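Supplementary Note 3. Input sequence used for the single-chain structure prediction.
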Amino acid sequence: MASTFPSPEWVQEFGQKLNSDPHYAQIAKNWEGDLSFTIEPSGPVKETIYYYFDLWHGTCRKAEVLKDLNIKPAFVLTAPYENFARVLKGDLDPMTAMLTRKLAVQGNMAVMMRSIPIVLDFVRCAREITTEILT
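The predicted structure, written as discrete structure tokens, is reproduced below.
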């Protein structure tokens, strides 16, 4: 299955993909940390969207849409919708996006930089379930 970004179905499908992908399970087997996406309004997105992923040792224990960011995940990735969409389309490298603050990262950047293979595989999984991106 695949779905449209951003949508509640996309979040659920992404969590399922992370849990069913053997490569992600192997590469992220030592990852400990939850994260959220704060998708700021731009283009077709008119209100801020919050997605939350509880990632633990190669599994996604929870994937959900939040009404607001009333939690303190280990990492918060914040960007206008268009930058998230560019990463999913493959027009913007995720690591370049983080280093140039097109995708702002709150959390331990040293951990993120040591985890580049995990980050790239996380994005691969997201791209594989995304069939449509709102324009």
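The first strand starts at residue 3 and ends at 5. The mean pLDDT is 95.
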